[in-house]
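FAQ

Q: What does a record look like?
A: Structure on top, sequence underneath. For example:
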């Protein structure tokens, strides 16, 4: 089931209004139709909803809330990345993007052919 994220102010008691870039993704890329079910996550408080698309317009997708799910904001898969030591300050970007994708831990590794070499002081 596809999952999208919205702000809390887009959620009312029985429906959720999706706006912005996700509308184009739902309409034109995924070609979802009225009646299809999707998951929607609240960015601010971590609540998740199972919804059914009830209306699709050019700039908004309206979904009816079918079920409210609590405590499902994190993946149940533990993913560890063994990352070779990169040049400069790229490690911060690697950690940021990996975390966004669901990586739970990173292990920096110094390989035989790595350009970056750590001394005992570092």
């Amino acid at each position: 089931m596809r999952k999208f994220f919205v702000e809390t102010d887009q959620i009312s008691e029985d429906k959720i209004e999706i706006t912005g870039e996700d509308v184009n993704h739902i309409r034109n890329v995924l070609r979802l139709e009225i009646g299809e079910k999707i998951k929607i996550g609240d960015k601010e408080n971590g609540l998740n909803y199972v919804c059914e698309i009830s209306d699709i317009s050019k700039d908004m997708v309206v979904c009816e809330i079918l079920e409210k799910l609590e405590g499902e904001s994190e993946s149940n898969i533990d993913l560890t990345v063994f990352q070779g030591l990169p040049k400069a300050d790229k490690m911060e970007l690697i950690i940021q993007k990996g975390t966004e994708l669901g990586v739970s831990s990173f292990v920096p590794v110094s390989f035989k052919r790595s350009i970056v070499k750590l001394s005992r002081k570092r």
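Q: Is there anything notable about this one?
A: The first helix runs from residue 21 to 29.
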